[in-house]
Amino acid sequence: MTITSSKQIDETLPATPLRRKWHVIVFMIAVHIGALLALLPINFTWTAVGLAVFLHWITGGLGITLGFHRLVTHRSFQTPKWLEYFFIFCGSLSCEGGVIDWVGLHRQHHKHSDGKGDPHDSSRGFWWSHMGWMLYHIPEDWEIHRYTQDIVDDPVYQFLQNYFFPIQIALGVLLYLLGGWPFVVWGIFVRLVVVFHCTWFVNSATHMFGYRTYDSDERSTNCWWVALVTYGEGWHNNHHAFQYSARHGLKWWEIDLTWMTIQLLQAVGLASKVKLASK
Q1: pLDDT at 4 over 60
Q2: What is the DSSP letter of 5?
Q3: Which of 27, 41, 45, 180 has minimal Cβ neighbours within 10 Å of its Cβ?
Q4: Can you tell me the mean pLDDT for 241-251?
């Protein structure tokens, strides 16, 4: 594989304006409009709401936070390969793009955090770091796969990278068969929108709001309300200070549900080589 240097990228890319990713824009508009269908009384049932909450935890908690982020991106702990694949499957159900792209972008974010080369550089404003960056073809897209050499050739990762959207369609069909349109509206559209924005708050809000425990070389903060909706990811300044740590909530009152889940996996023998912040 030929690796293109950042300098070469800067020299070959046009300056402005950035080209829009229309397929992403149309998808985002469609999903948000679909979520608005939940306002119709005909689409409301408490069972459907409960389903959305459950799938939020499965896809956003076990999938994105535990699987994509702490397990694969940072290798904060290890699990049996079958369990790793399960968590990656759960993360793929969040429909936040392919797992290889997701991991590569996040590793790139840590290398260039809040500076040139960071895909969602928070110094460019809340909107850009929250979701604006994904709506354009940006120079940072060129370097993603240089950060994923450990997973890019894995056939399971390749399958989930390429087919996460058809899998989402299949889930929608299954939910329709189980509970009709209320299950689809809440279990797919509402759940996706909520998981999207919860995840994006880690890129935006936790680089702008909250407090800083550590003087890390970027703008990361600890934000309690982001931690609440992302199963512990809001303790982002702690995370940037100790990127390898499986535990993000380092103070006794910094509640980290994902760390509790990792502790449970460790207790039953399904998590090993758990890395923690140095004292």
Answers
A1: no
A2: P
A3: 41
A4: 96
